[in-house]
Amino acid sequence: MTDTPLRQIPFRDAEGRERTLDDYGSGPVLVVNVASKCGLTPQYEQLEELQRTYGDRGFSVIGFPCNQFLGQEPGSMEQILEFCSTTYGVTFPVNDKVKVNGRNAADLYRALKQTPDGDGKSGRVEWNFEKFLVAPDGSVQRFRPKQRPDDPEIVAAIEKALEG
Q: What does 28-81 look like in DSSP terms, one character per residue?
């Protein structure tokens, strides 16, 4: 594991450039592993609504396509970006595909997975659309895939992180 602060762990954006969470501003970010062919894919709609509601206050949703769950994100980056923009009007950043579990998991996800969820369980990402709210101070809250982005608990956590 690296000693690099969470918000400064590098990853690649959709164009292959190296980025960090701090590159998307100093506000809170909601990191989500996304997929185009999943039963939870309609969560893109609520993620985009969060982006539109809170984006002007420094908040950002940041998507990471992942094909580790039953091959539900098989497309190229071009296909993924096209799907996101035409189907859900996504304006938040969608970065390069990553692995979230296993030996080849992205460094950012290796760090995020250490965070326990509301039930105290950390470790593997369960499925597509697992959400990690990273506050400006680097603290993290974890929300499991079936918890919708517009769930009052997630909205309250975003609002608290924006105030903090």
A: -EEEEEE-SSSTTTTHHHHHHHHHHHHGGGT-EEEEEE--TTTT---S-HHHHH
